[in-house]
Amino acid sequence: MVVCTRVRVPPDEFLLADALSERPGVRIELERVVPCRERTTPSLWIASQDAPWVTQAVGGDETVDEVEVLDAVDGGLVLQVDWAATSTPFLDLIAEADATCLKGIGTADGWSLTLRYPTHEAFTASYHRCSDEDIEFSVESVRSSAGIADYGVESMLTEPQREALNEALACGYFDVPRGVTLQTLADRLGISDTAASQRLRRGIQKVLSEQLG
Q1: CA 100 to CA 121: how far, in whole Å?
Q2: Other CB atoms within 10 Å distance of the CB of residue 179
Q3: Which of the 8 DSSP states describes residue 11?
Q4: Dihedral sign, CA of 116, 75, 10, 68?
Q5: Which residue intervals of the chain are DSSP H helices?
Q6: What letter would DSSP give residue 12?
Q7: Torsions phi, psi of 84, nearest 5?
Q8: d(CA 198, CA 204)
Q9: pTM exceeds 0.70 for this model
């Protein structure tokens, strides 16, 4: 059974420790799936529009061979990175377990990583290896599912919450000005306006906790 786990590790156990230490307030997000064995990723996003600094800091990091600024998006920069053939004990254990990194958010305080293991046994073995080798990390959550494809907002929302958020988005409830009232949205969902408000509030809270927590 596939296992997805969220863990935290110090910057020097994963990637871009040098770049993260230069500016304590910076935030780096790995985009899309990151195959840890090949040390490659389609792109990463960094919360800075200082292109010269980004190119120097990220490009000069010991884990990076080459970096290219692709675009400015959402107040930050999207980068294409070629990773160097460097490693850490934690990265080696991820590779040995055939795990895949689905999501990574890095700050000067450390990396929050969502890892997918092919079996529960693989995760357990990797967990014990980390403990045996005194690798500094903490497991925040573990989920198992035979058909899991991602581990994030979609897996956290209940079906009614997902339905309410999708309907609210589709009918313009979040637009300015709003396309429909809360009562109209509730009528579309076949529930009371109080129930609709609670589903939206709880669903949004989960989305924000996943993305900003």
Answers
A1: 15
A2: 14
A3: G
A4: positive
A5: 17-22, 51-59, 89-96, 120-132, 153-156, 159-170, 182-189, 193-212
A6: G
A7: -75, 165
A8: 10
A9: no
Distance CA 90, CA 39 (A): 13
The answer to whether 70 and 62 are in contact (CB under 8 A) is: no
Can you give the C-alpha Rg of the chain in angstroms?
Answer: 20
CA distance 86 to 36: 12
Do 130 and 137 form a contact (C-beta atoms < 8 A)? yes
Query: What is the total residue count of the chain?
Result: 213
Tens place of pLDDT per residue across the chain (213 aa): 788 888 999 999 999 998 899 888 888 988 754 445 554 555 788 988 899 999 999 999 888 999 999 888 767 898 988 888 878 899 999 999 999 888 888 999 999 998 999 998 999 999 999 989 999 889 888 887 544 444 455 556 777 888 899 899 888 999 889 999 999 999 999 999 988 998 898 888 877 776 665
Residue recorded with tokens 């589903």 = 199
Quote the Cα angle for 6-12-16, to 5°: 90
Sequence letter at residue 119: T
Exposure letters 107-124 (e unless 16+ CB within 10 A, then b): bbebbbbbbbbeeeebbe
